[in-house]
Amino acid sequence: MWGTMRGMAAAALAGLALMAGGAAAQELDAATKALNAKSYFHGTPPIAERYKNQKSWFAVPTPPKEELKKHQFMPPISAVAKMRAMQSMMFYNPFSLKQMINFMAAKKKAAKGLSFDEVVESMKTKANELNMRFVGVSTPWRVIREIYDPKYPRVEIYSFCDLETLARILEYSPEFIVFIPCRIAVMEDRNKDIWLVTLDWDVRWMDTAPNPNRISDDLRKRAISIRERLEKIMETAASGDF
Q1: What is the pTM of this model?
Q2: DSSP H stretches of helix in the chain
Q3: Topology of the domain comprising 105-242
Q4: Regarding beta strands 155-161 and 182-188, do their DSSP bridges make them parallel or antiparallel, or are they unpaired?
Q5: Model confidence over 60-84: pLDDT tens digits?
């Protein structure tokens, strides 16, 4: 009897959650449209700082705290394990692949009247001002036009780096090399609009993670600073300021 009542209560709560979720989804969609021009969270986030020691009746099992050894790679994760983990998470993910990629992209549309080269020059100038060293550029559109489509839009990927932060990150996680140096792509779309795009990663997303193996406060501040500087570079270039 008690088991049946608990089952009914759980079903009722699940129904309420779904109804609330629908309303919340509509509110989220409206808020997203209203804030569409902002690709980085400015101001004090809902969770101002990291949770210290989380204790509650519901605890997710995590690995124990480990001793950090600089420049030490972790053991590889098998393709089967990755597949199972991602398929489990995707079961609750409402996004399409295109939407997921959009979720991980921060972007700015350049003001009308700015040329591609003006946007790039503005971006480089601001990056230098913010101590984000320009370390390279890739221009795939030149080859694409030769081998695939003579009218392919211009797209260039610019690399910037804060070398001290880079060194500290690789001490913590050598695997992070796949994400660095920081890149900002400049691309002309089908409407001849120019966009600046970068990988969107805010380390504060991890502030509520219960895993005890967390980055140091210093590295966290550095990571936040990198993301903020990338945002400023894109904002400046999109407006054409020098």
Answers
A1: 0.80
A2: 2-34, 79-90, 97-103, 116-129, 140-147, 163-172, 217-239
A3: TATA-Binding Protein (3.30.310)
A4: antiparallel
A5: 788 888 888 999 999 999 999 999 9
